[in-house]
Amino acid sequence: MTSSTRILIDTDPGIDDAMAIFFALASPELEVVGLTTVFGNAHTDLCTINALRLLDIAGRPDIPVAQGASRPLAMNYRGPVAFVHGEDGQGDVFLPPSTRQVEPVHAAQFIIDTVMAAPEDITIVLLGPFTNMALAMLMRPDLTSFVKQIVVMGGAAFTSGNASPAAEANILNDPEAADIVFGADCPIVMAGLDVTHSITMTNDDLARFGKIPGPRAAHLAAIVPYYSGFYRDRNHVDGIYVHDSTTISYLLAPHLFTWTELPIRVDTGHSVCRGKTLPALHDSDEEGPWQGRRPVRILTSVDARGVIELEFDHLSR
Ligand code: RIB
Ligand code: CA
């Protein structure tokens, strides 16, 4: 990887979003050019407040934040998941408000402006529902021909969902948007449940945050117990599944992953399979609903201990 992969992160912070954002900010190999916010783990207004707070903690007031959509393209917002991320979206630590201001443009316009200011140079990382990116693509249909690549946390190609038996949460929160984005005209990498459910940061791992000096690790140490409590109670997992940070691990160390490359459609029907990410499994499928779609790099396996140590290594710097 070159020394400066420029990334724009679209996010719904969110405890694991905070981990991913801090991981990216701790990586000299990456330059975070902006954060855009979306509903998902919490309402958009709160996600925006959290994005600003996280940049305050990280000491990065130079990074712009643009607020985005407050509802999906074609349905009502399914609502916050306080039982996963807390009433404040950050493990109920109730941080003080930021004094920073958001950018005076919608996130979709911010994405367009950022990409067009540096054609073929910007990697877009999606950590929440894909609504802002889909809106940007609808506003500027040739946009993704100028995007370097899109790396998403979302979907479940060959495994079951986590928000329904069929669907992963970021996709179920806006299936129409996800189907638009998987039709993008640029390389797409999908870090979905196929791989993130193979990465468990144990409670022993999580305790390491408390021993790392500095405000980023101190915040993570304060918020991860809420998240691991959810996993203990709902999934009987010792620790947490590492979702959003997997996008950053892939950017830093793609050699730690294996993948398959297939076009993807998203079920936008209103059946039990709504939000399912469906790869084209047979050559003949590509003449059907998948026709004209570029193959998506679907991450399927990972050196789990490798990516966990990578994250701790970076966050310890
Ligand atoms: O399914 C996991 C995803 O849903 C993560 O992005 C998490 O933050 C939530 O948004
Ligand atoms: Ca997220």
What does this protein structure show overall?
The chain has one domain (5-315): Alpha-Beta Complex (Inosine-uridine Nucleoside N-ribohydrolase, Chain A). The chain has 317 residues and is of the alpha/beta class. It has helices at residues 15-25, 44-58, 82-85, 107-117, 131-139, 169-172, 175-181, 193-196, 203-207, 215-235, 245-252, 304-315; strands spanning 5-11, 30-37, 65-67, 122-126, 149-153, 188-191, 200-201, 240-241, 257-262, 264-266, 277-279, 296-302. Strands 3-2-1-4-5-6-12-9 form an 8-stranded mixed β-sheet, sandwiched between helices. It has a two-stranded antiparallel ribbon with strand order 7-8. α1 packs antiparallel against α10, α1 packs parallel to α11 and α4 crosses α5. The model has no long low-confidence stretch (mean pLDDT 97). Calcium ion is lined by residues 12, 14, 16-17, 40-41, 127-128, 244.
Q: Radius of gyration over alpha carbons? A: 18 Å
Largest sheet, described in full? 8 strands, mixed
User: In the CATH hierarchy, what is the class?
Assistant: Alpha Beta
Ions, cofactors, ligands: which are bound?
alpha-D-ribofuranose, calcium ion
The succession of helices and strands, N to C, reads EHEHEHHEHEHHEHEHHEHEEEEH
State the shape.
globular
Q: Which bin fits the share of residues in helices?
A: 25-40%
Total number of distinct structural domains? 1
What name is given to the CATH topology? Inosine-uridine Nucleoside N-ribohydrolase, Chain A
Kindly state the mean pLDDT as a whole number? 97
Number of helices: 12
| Strands side by side in the biggest sheet | 3-2-1-4-5-6-12-9
Number of strands: 12
The CATH homology group name: Ribonucleoside hydrolase-like
Which residues sit in consecutive blocks of at least 5 with pLDDT less than 50? none
Please give the alpha-carbon distance between the first and last residues: 19 Å
Structural class: alpha/beta
Question: Which band does the percent of strand residues land in?
Answer: 15-25%
Q: So, CATH architecture?
A: Alpha-Beta Complex
